[in-house]
């Protein structure tokens, strides 16, 4: 009976540590010659680190570009300054955030890099929609 209780308590503790790790937002925004990444950590209990990966079109795999240690802040930012120095250009860049927990599990969130907000292009798109 005591062994069963200890095993059950250990499983419960591990699941609580993994459950506590939550990222509520992950986005990538092109700005000039770089991509600005940001994410919100609602709860960092049990998080041992963050890993940021990039996938350039037409590649199928993600390349690790950095690892970050949690600093108990709710908002994180990272600037990828090497993204456009590659031959692939600006098309098809996707980012993946891996959240490592103390138990060794990883959860992933993936987002494409959104183009810069351009007022002229948005206005032109609105005008085109009006005449369809």
Précis, in short:
It contains two helices and seven strands. It has 132 residues and is an alpha+beta fold.
Would you mind describing this structure in some detail?
- It is a single chain.
- The chain has 132 residues and is α+β, with helices and mostly antiparallel strands.
- It has a single domain, classed as Sandwich (Immunoglobulin-like), CATH 2.60.40.10.
- It contains two helices and seven strands; from the N terminus they run αβββββββα.
- It has a seven-stranded mixed β-sheet.
- A hairpin with a 2-residue loop joins strand 1 and strand 2.
- The longest helix is centred in the N-terminal third of the chain and has 18 residues.
- It is elongated, with a radius of gyration of 20 Å.
- About 14% of the residues have low confidence.
Write the layout of secondary structure elements.
Blueprint lengths: L1 H18 L2 E10 L2 E10 L3 E10 L6 E6 L6 E6 L12 E9 L4 E9 L4 H12 L2
Parallel strand pairs: 1-7
Antiparallel strand pairs: 1-2, 2-5, 3-4, 3-6, 6-7
Describe the largest sheet. 7 strands, mixed
CATH class wording? Mainly Beta
Report how far apart the termini are: 73 Å
CATH-defined architecture: Sandwich
Rg, alpha carbons: 20 Å
Helix segment count? 2
Q: How many β strands by DSSP?
A: 7
